[in-house]
């Protein structure tokens, strides 16, 4: 059986006479997390071996042995029977090549890496993995957005207070609130689709930094692995981690939107508001207070946004001072990428679960409406009579002051009281104090009238497609 000693398995040990310090060995290894890339590493190796066969570096028989051996290694990973060797398997590349040598012999396995560097190998693995994960994230986000659009259409008749500065401002439709975030998430979807294009570019065949000396067919490998195009500079290709950083930035955008969405729902689900009720499946209780139903799903969405932001900020700091081409600092790109993608993917699915099971309380929304929210409508009433808006704003403000001073809701002030504020009020001012009429007046595109909201649903569905 082939030796499995540490030194025998090093891919770089020829000029070294001593071993690594034990702590340095642990500090340096990455197999504990980059083993996730086993499938991508093997696919890249098969494509590279095939191209080396075309270039005359391998015989067809050697290629077939390498391919069969690599497929066996992948099967072991999938079955959970792959046995790594602590201290010998530094990373996923070392582990796979070591096991390949055990299966087909080191003489042939040793030819696999001809002209290839781990610099291009890890960059290829990461891009392949991230491409597939971005496709999953797109599916999650599209599914969530479909729930937003469906509920917005179904619940378009629910009128609620709209808030600025967490104070009641103007009446809006509940659907209008949902769609305000729906379009933010749709923008995130658009960004995601753009990022995927830049992720799906091949660095394979670029060597350590200077390129491949054996005339390897990079286009052939790129096509086999499903890349859209090549990275055209070998130095940039092996060093580039912008695709990771851009993904972390994208995820931070999305998590910022999810966090704010969750914050609104935390408020709306509180006893003080009661606009919505969370399903038990997305709530927890208190170990002390039996009456509590806590919105832990929403609070975790809000909390995990900070984790996502940390990935992005931390990795940006890692990159900022690096000299050209590959540096070992770039090993720090893998864990943030893995954790970020999982955090974001889980968060989108939790958000969809919350929204799809959310129990809306339209009567509570209606009860929270307040006549003061129609103060702008009072000003608009006078505008329609030809009064300049700046003047009508002050007049409406005096109506608000009168309401507060007398303790009379604005909609219950008498015609005489209104006339006392300004002679231009007529008896039809009473018609202004109608919440449904108020939302229907906001009929310009993007407004909260029913027709506008339903148009927004249509536009959102178009963005999802």
TrEMBL record:
Residues 372-440 form the Argininosuccinate lyase C-terminal domain. InterPro entries: Arg_succ_lyase_C, Argininosuccinate_lyase, Fumarase/histidase_N, Fumarate_lyase_CS, Fumarate_lyase_fam, Fumarate_lyase_N, L-Aspartase-like. One of its GO terms (molecular function) is argininosuccinate lyase activity. Pathway: Amino-acid biosynthesis; L-arginine biosynthesis; L-arginine from L-ornithine and carbamoyl phosphate: step 3/3. It catalyses: 2-(N(omega)-L-arginino)succinate = fumarate + L-arginine. Residues 14-310 form the Fumarate lyase N-terminal domain. Keywords: Lyase. Its EC number is 4.3.2.1. PROSITE patterns: FUMARATE_LYASES. One of its GO terms (cellular component) is cytosol. It is an enzyme of class 4 (lyase). The keyword Lyase applies. GO terms for biological process: L-arginine biosynthetic process via ornithine. The keyword Oxidoreductase does not apply. It holds the Pfam family ASL_C2. Belongs to the lyase 1 family. Argininosuccinate lyase subfamily. This is argininosuccinate lyase. It comes from Cryphonectria parasitica (strain ATCC 38755 / EP155).
């Amino acid at each position: 059986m082939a030796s499995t000693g540490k030194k025998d398995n090093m891919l770089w040990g020829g000029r070294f006479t001593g071993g690594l310090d034990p702590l340095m060995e642990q500090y340096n290894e990455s197999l504990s997390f980059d083993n996730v890339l086993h499938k991508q590493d093997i696919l890249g190796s098969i494509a590279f071996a095939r191209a080396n066969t075309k270039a005359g570096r391998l015989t067809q028989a050697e290629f077939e042995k390498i391919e069969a051996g690599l497929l066996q290694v992948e099967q072991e990973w999938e079955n959970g029977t792959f046995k790594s060797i602590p201290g010998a398997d530094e990373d996923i590349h070392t582990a796979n090549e070591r096991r390949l040598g055990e299966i087909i012999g080191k003489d042939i396995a040793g030819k696999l890496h001809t002209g290839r560097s781990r610099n291009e190998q890890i960059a290829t693995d990461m891009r392949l993995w991230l491409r597939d994960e971005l496709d999953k994230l797109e599916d999650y986000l599209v599914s969530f957005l479909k729930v937003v659009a469906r509920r917005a259409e179904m619940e378009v008749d629910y009128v609620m207070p709209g808030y600025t500065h967490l104070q009641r401002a103007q009446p809006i439709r509940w659907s209008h609130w949902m769609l305000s975030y729906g379009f933010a998430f749709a923008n995130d979807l658009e960004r995601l689709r753009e990022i995927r294009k830049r992720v799906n570019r091949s660095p394979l065949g670029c060597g350590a930094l200077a390129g491949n000396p054996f005339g390897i067919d990079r286009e052939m490998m790129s096509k086999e692995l499903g890349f859209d195009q090549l990275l055209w500079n070998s130095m940039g290709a092996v060093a580039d981690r912008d695709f990771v950083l851009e993904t972390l930035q994208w995820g931070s955008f999305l998590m910022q939107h999810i966090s704010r969405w969750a914050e609104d729902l935390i408020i709306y689900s509180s006893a003080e508001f009661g606009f919505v009720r969370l399903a038990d499946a997305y709530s927890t209780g208190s170990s002390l207070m039996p009456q509590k139903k806590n919105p832990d799903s929403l609070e975790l969405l809000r909390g995990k946004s900070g984790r996502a932001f940390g990935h992005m900020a931390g990795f940006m700091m890692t990159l900022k001072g690096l000299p050209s081409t590959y540096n070992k600092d770039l090993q720090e790109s893998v864990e943030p990428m893995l954790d970020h993608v999982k955090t974001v993917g889980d968060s989108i699915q939790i958000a969809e679960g919350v929204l799809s099971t959310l129990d809306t309380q339209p009567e509570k929304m209606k009860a929270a409406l307040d006549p003061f929210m129609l103060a702008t409508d009072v000003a608009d009433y006078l505008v329609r009579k030809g009064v300049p808006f700046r003047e009508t704003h002050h007049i409406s403000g005096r109506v608000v002051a009168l309401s507060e001073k007398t303790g009379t809701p604005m909609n219950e002030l008498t015609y005489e009281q209104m006339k006392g504020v300004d002679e231009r009020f007529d008896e039809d001012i009473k018609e202004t104090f109608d919440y449904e009429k108020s939302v229907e007046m906001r009929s310009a595109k993007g407004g909260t009238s029913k027709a506008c909201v339903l148009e927004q649903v249509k536009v959102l569905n178009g963005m999802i497609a």
